[in-house]
Amino acid sequence: MYTRLVDRLTDLAIAAFLWGLRLAVVAVVVVGSFLTLTSGKYQTETWADLISFGLVLGCIYALIALGYTMVYGILRMINFAHGEIFMCGAFGGYFAATALGRSGFLHAGPLNALISVALIMLVAATVSTSVALLVERIAYRPLRSAPRLVPLISAIGASFFLQYSVKGLFGPGIYAYPDVAVLKEVVPVPLLHVRWMDLLVILAAVAMMAGLYFFVMRTKIGTAIRAVSEDQSTAALMGIDVNRAIVTTFAVGAAMAGAAGALYGLKFSTINFFSGFYPGIKAFTAAVLGGIGNVPGAMLGGLFLGQVESLGPTLFLDGLEVPAPNQLKDAIAFIMLVMVLIFRPSGLLGERITRQRA
Question: Which of 203, 216, 206 is nearest to 69 (CA)?
């Protein structure tokens, strides 16, 4: 009886602490936002810039997160090498952009710039897909029947291998994408305070996410992928090629990450061998926020995280006179992850994982 009482009091104390944590976070968000908005410190153009930057960040995070969520959905494992696959795509896009820049084609007008961006994204997607297929064949496929911790360790090893292979091949220095002047111009539309580069990233990401959703939900191979995700053994008995479905999942997720790597390089200009780490972790956070294994959830989680990271430091903390709030954007993003894991572990759109599927 005494043990039950202690357990009950412990549960109540933990519940009280969690509710206190939730109320503290809500209080900071509400009070900080109110003080910032009523201070009149920032003009409408500033908020428009923050929102557009958040959309760009969110689109990039969403494209990377799709690879995490698709691989988890079909294999129930986290591909921690996915951030480095994104980085390899960014490097492939860099070399393609440099070649196009030196030839003069990249700077020969708006149409040429648009064609060049499409070619850069295609090269980046091809590089990322090739790397992902090699990683799947060498590091993951032999371990499919192993305990779940084993492929996780293999994924971490593959991540470090790719990271330091790129460092050994290209050095630790910073590589700068060539500037495209036309993409840095502001879109001549009233109340739409964005540059052509931002609009290109958003439109390209939306088009790719819509194409992926159509691919998964409306094509034969997409149906096969969903069947394998539900039950590999039953899918194999029904004549579905499980290996093909898994390889296709890796290829599609890597292609999205590679295209995101090219857009990331064009937007932020510089990359290095470590460029995949933080975007990869943020994209994993976005996948968890949306519901790991859920494709629309990864899209929503990426867009939501991008806005929180862009608006959060200014909106939540500036009114509280926190010094250097922009340096806390990563902290805010990961606090969101912790809060979701505590109060809604399945994510915003995630399913409740049953014991059989877990």
Answer: 216
| Residues 323, 63: Cα–Cα separation, whole Å | 33
- Alpha-carbon torsion angle 301, 279, 86, 228, nearest 10: -30
Q: Nearest to residue 170, comparing CAs of 92, 96, 103, 97?
A: 92
Residue-range domain boundaries for the chain: 62-290
Phi-psi group of 40: left, alpha or beta (phi > 0 → left; psi -120 to 50 → alpha; rest → beta): left
- 235-294 confidence digits (pLDDT tens): 888 888 888 999 999 999 999 999 999 999 999 989 999 999 989 999 998 888 888 888
Question: SS3 for 271?
Answer: strand
E strand or H helix at 175, and its extent? strand 175-176
Of residues 179 and 353, more confidently modeled: 179
Q: Give backbone dihedrals phi and psi of 290, rounded to 5 degrees, phi first.
A: -80, -25
Coil, strand or helix: which one is 130?
helix
Cα(108)–Cα(117) distance, rounded to whole angstroms? 13
pLDDT value of position 353: 45
Encoded tokens for 181: 């002047």
**What tens digit of pLDDT does each residue of 85-125 get?**
999 999 999 999 999 988 888 887 788 888 999 999 999 99
Amino acid code (one letter) for 157: G
Amino acid at 242: V
Can you spell out the DSSP letters for 44-92? HHHHHHHHHHHHHHHHHHHHHHHHHHHHHHHHS---TTHHHHHHHHHHH
Residue showing tokens 């036309």:
182
Longest distance between any two alpha carbons in the chain, whole Å: 81
Whether the Cβ atoms of residue 257 and residue 64 lie closer than 8 Å to each other: yes
pLDDT of res. 354? 41
Amino acid at 95: F
